[in-house]
Amino acid sequence: MIPAVPFLSLLLVAAGILLLFGGGEGLVRGATSIAQRFGMSSLVVGLTVVAFATSAPELAASLTAALTGAPDIAVGNVLGSNVANLALILGVAALARPIPVAASFVKGEIPVMIVVTLLLAPMLLDDLIGRGEGVLLLLVLALYLGFLLVQKSRTGGAGVSESLQESPLPLRRAILAVGLGGLGLVVGAKLLITGAVEIAQSFGISDRVIGLTLVALGTSLPELASSLVAARHGEGDIVLGNIIGSNVFNVACILGTTAVVIPIPAVDPGTPHDLAVVVGLSIALPLLLLPNGRLGRVAGGLLLLAYGLYVGVLFAGF
Question: Which among 85, 32, 35, 34 has a CA at the least distance from the CA of 58?
């Protein structure tokens, strides 16, 4: 007999996802407008403000989960978001429009994402992702951003594509958007985690599976929205840059910050398998991109199929 799902829990999850999406959108627009009005270049805005803002839902959800005693949701959210970014979001974007990409991007940025992801392997083998390991992850992120800023300044990179830029908001409206966006993220994360845990308990589903699926999908909405916009504009580098940058940020900043605030105790035994899926998809991505210099609709379909199989296996074995 299928257990009844508490209606209030479903409402909490739906409201939480909507608040995370709306809060993330408001934070992105407001923070970008403030940065532009203070003379920051589009490159710096893209690598710092926008990168942080689009990952803010994951950060809010992971911190909330860890602080409320659900560390498996915190780790599952990060790994699940990275799987969703690589398989679901790239798959949908490629089906919407094939994604061209420069070979230098494939050879330069994707290996960094793989290395940063692999840093988690020894941490997950311990009983604790402690504050020292959290600081290490944050230092890695700082070094990565510093390297990108220096590299792009030497090569004259323009950063965010002009076709995707919007006129900055008036300063007061931008500050209000940041404030309301941040509030939406905090409240939305609390509602989503509360509802997700209640649903998991009613079905007997583990926190790990809920973090990898429901929470991960809810917090990945900003990446999905921005990737579809970029795909429609034919901006392949923006799509892949958003996904790869988000994956690096999820591991280094979100787990790093969460571990510094509150050390993350031993996680579900299945978590190393989830990490292996993220690494496998990361390695498969350049193999799909390099032959034709683009991610076509067939490759997009294969990524979506891989995501469907992954989610199916998760729920079959929960």
Answer: 85
Cα separation, 153 vs 307, in Å, equals 37
Lowest-confidence segment of 20-24, 40-44, 135-139, 268-272 by average pLDDT: 40-44
At 163, give phi and psi (nearest 5°): -65, -20
pLDDT above 60 (res 303): yes
The two tokens of residue 104 are 């230098």
Mean pLDDT of 221-230: 72
In sign, the C-alpha dihedral spanning 91, 312, 185, 10 is positive
Q: Is the pTM of this model over 0.70?
A: yes
**Best CA proximity match to 136, nearest among 276, 257, 275:** 257
Please give the pLDDT value at position 3. 58
* Residue 162 confidence (pLDDT): 45
Q: Are 236 and 101 in contact (CB under 8 A)?
A: yes
Length in residues, the chain: 318
- DSSP character for 156? T
Q: What is each CA distance from 134 to 39, 131, 175, in whole angstroms?
A: 32, 5, 30
